[in-house]
Design brief:
It is built from 11 helices and 10 strands. The protein is an alpha+beta fold and 385 residues long. The chain has 3 domains: 113 residues, Butyryl-Coa Dehydrogenase, subunit A, domain 1, CATH 1.10.540.10; 108 residues, Butyryl-CoA Dehydrogenase, subunit A, domain 2, CATH 2.40.110; 151 residues, Up-down Bundle (Butyryl-CoA Dehydrogenase, subunit A, domain 3). Helix 1 runs parallel beside helix 3 and helix 3 crosses helix 6. It binds acetoacetyl-coenzyme A (CAA).
């Protein structure tokens, strides 16, 4: 693996770092507290190309590669994971799926406004009674001429309240199980689309999450992504890409927690000098650093596998799940250690350390829990299904 970043990769990383430090850092605590969607900063991210990094320029994106995407995402998340979540859903759960499975017309109509940041995209697989076991969904669509009539409730839709366009997975033939699921592109301003309850969350509070209700929503056949029955495979392929984004998010949170801890260990004094002199603190620092560097390599490996798959079509499921699993547990570990090193100050809202702790938890849950990642890795290694 070539770990030398090209000039282009360094440039996008530095641009994301500058933006995060200059524009996001000053508003992160406010949006975390209020739980409002940060429309203004998200718009600026769109103007800079961060909302469609891997999307070709002809469809409104920045036309960069999978490594550029994770480098930028890591920097945004290092400052605020809520902005990172919005960016990640837009790029990998929404744009990637349409670029990979959409027709030319669909790419132009559904990717261009979202990759350029004029509109926001989302992804919707989960339902109130269908989470990890994603194939058990109940929402259904019935074809009537040139339309599908969609009814049902989807839940835990990240960016749901803000999204104009959503890639949604609906059952079209319940008798065929996962092979009866179909993907659709739905629009939030059409009759039959209703926003449901907005979740009040522990972390990533500014990345609005909600239910969506469909009541006789009429989706034109041209807005079906792929063929009937291909939805589950599309959902899983897109999640492979999404999980690399969560690895980048986790790495960003872990680094933020680590850097805060380093600074605190140098400055905070106890028993006659800085607490970094104590072995109890040094071991935490060493363990955080090792896990962060290992997560970075796994993230690079997964991003390179994803990039290679654009030509070969090969799956990168295992690489993505390994990177997501390891990095998300690293984020939680580092955030936990950071609170402990900061002690009372880590528990106070005066510093962002408590936010890192709250934000880290979701990385072990969404886009497949750690238990699901272990299952995916083991099944693939064992050659099981
Ligand atoms: N890529 C392509 N195809 C895949 C695939 C992948 N990564 N994984 C599975 N498939 C295919 C299989 O080859 C199989 O194909 P056939 O039709 O030929 O049989 C089919 O999908 C079914 O596969 P499985 O038998 O393995 O399916 P399963 O029912 O046992 O489930 C699972 C597998 C891995 C547990 C899957 O259900 C899963 O990933 N669950 C977690 C769902 C998840 O991550 N949800 C989060 C949603 S997004 C979110 O969090 C909110 C948000 O907005 C960000």
């Amino acid at each position: 693996m070539d770990l030398q970043l090209s000039e282009e990769h360094q440039m996008i990383r530095d641009a994301a770092r500058d933006f995060a430090q200059n524009e996001i850092a000053k508003v992160a605590a406010h949006y975390d507290e209020s739980g409002e969607f940060p429309y203004e900063t998200v718009k600026k991210m769109g103007n800079l190309g961060f909302m469609g990094i891997e999307v070709p320029e002809e469809y409104g994106g920045a036309g960069l590669d999978a490594l550029a995407y994770v480098l930028a995402l890591e920097e945004i998340n290092k400052v605020d994971a809520a902005h990172g979540t919005i960016m990640s859903v837009n790029n990998s759960l929404y744009c990637y799926g349409i670029l990979r499975f959409g027709t030319e017309e669909q790419k132009q109509r559904y990717v261009t406004p979202v990759a350029s940041g004029q509109k926001t995209g989302a992804y919707s697989l989960t339902e109130p009674m269908s989470g990890s076991d994603a194939a058990t969904m109940k929402s259904h669509a019935v074809r009537e001429g040139d339309y599908y009539v969609i009814n049902g409730t989807k839940s835990w839709v990240t960016s749901g309240p803000a999204a104009h366009l959503i890639l949604v997975f609906i059952m079209t033939d319940p008798e065929r199980g996962h092979r009866g699921i179909t993907a659709f592109l739905v629009e939030n301003d059409k009759p039959g689309f209703h926003l449901g309850r907005k979740e009040d969350k522990l972390g990533i509070r500014a990345s609005a999450t909600s239910e969506i209700h469909f009541e006789d929503y009429r989706c034109p056949v041209e807005a079906r992504l792929g063929e009937e029955g291909e939805g589950f495979k599309i959902a899983m392929t897109v999640l492979d890409a999404g999980r690399i984004g969560i690895a980048a998010q986790s790495l960003g949170i872990a680094e933020a927690a680590y850097e805060a801890s380093l600074q605190y260990a140098r400055e905070r004094e106890a028993f006659g000098g800085p607490i970094g002199r104590f072995q109890g603190i040094q071991w935490k620092i060493a363990d955080m650093k090792c896990r962060i560097e290992a997560s970075r390599l796994l993230m690079y490996q997964a991003a390179l596998a994803k990039e290679a798959s654009k030509k070969s079509g090969a799956r990168f499921t295992t690489e993505a799940s390994i990177a997501k699993l390891y990095a998300s547990e690293t984020a939680m570990f580092c955030a936990h250690q950071a609170v402990q090193i900061h002690a009372g100050m880590g528990y106070s809202k005066e510093l962002p350390v408590e936010r890192y702790f709250r934000d880290a938890k979701i990385t072990e849950i969404y886009e497949g829990t750690s238990e699901i990642q272990r299952m995916v890795i083991a099944r693939n290694e064992l050659g099981l299904r």
